[in-house]
Write a structure and sequence with these properties.
mainly beta; 8 strands; elongated; 3-stranded antiparallel β-sheet; 103 residues
C-alpha cells in the first residue's frame, strides 16, 4: 500500500494584498486571475503587491523585481493589458497572478 501524498501551496509563495488603481478588485490570495476596468482615459495603473510572508526570494511585476509594497507604474494601451505578479519562495515554489486591465 502506498502512502498518500498531500500537496499544499507554500504560504510563502502567496500574496497578502494586491491593489491596482485606478480600478477595483476583490483580492483573495488563492485567486490568481482578475479583470478590472481602468477607464478609457487612464494612461497607466499603479500596482502594489505585498507577499503573505517576508520570507520570499523574489517579487516580480511584469518581470521586474520589486520591493514588497512598492508601487509599479504600468503604462496602458487601449484595449486589454495583461499584468503579471509573481511570488517566488526560497524553496522554488512560485505563484503567478494575472491582472487584465481594460482601458
Amino acid at each position: 500500500m502506498e502512502a498518500a501524498q498531500l500537496f499544499l501551496a507554500n504560504p510563502q509563495a502567496l500574496l497578502k494584498s494586491l491593489t491596482v488603481t485606478p480600478g477595483s478588485l476583490a483580492f483573495a490570495p488563492e485567486t490568481v486571475t482578475y479583470n478590472i476596468y481602468a477607464g478609457s482615459g487612464a494612461p497607466s495603473v499603479d500596482v502594489r503587491a505585498v507577499p503573505a510572508s517576508m520570507m520570499v526570494q523574489d517579487l516580480l511585476v511584469n518581470g521586474a523585481s520589486v520591493a514588497s509594497g512598492s508601487v509599479s507604474i504600468i503604462p496602458l494601451i487601449p484595449g486589454t493589458n495583461e499584468i503579471t505578479i509573481e511570488v517566488a519562495a526560497f524553496d522554488g515554489t512560485r505563484k503567478t497572478y494575472l491582472v487584465r486591465v481594460i482601458r
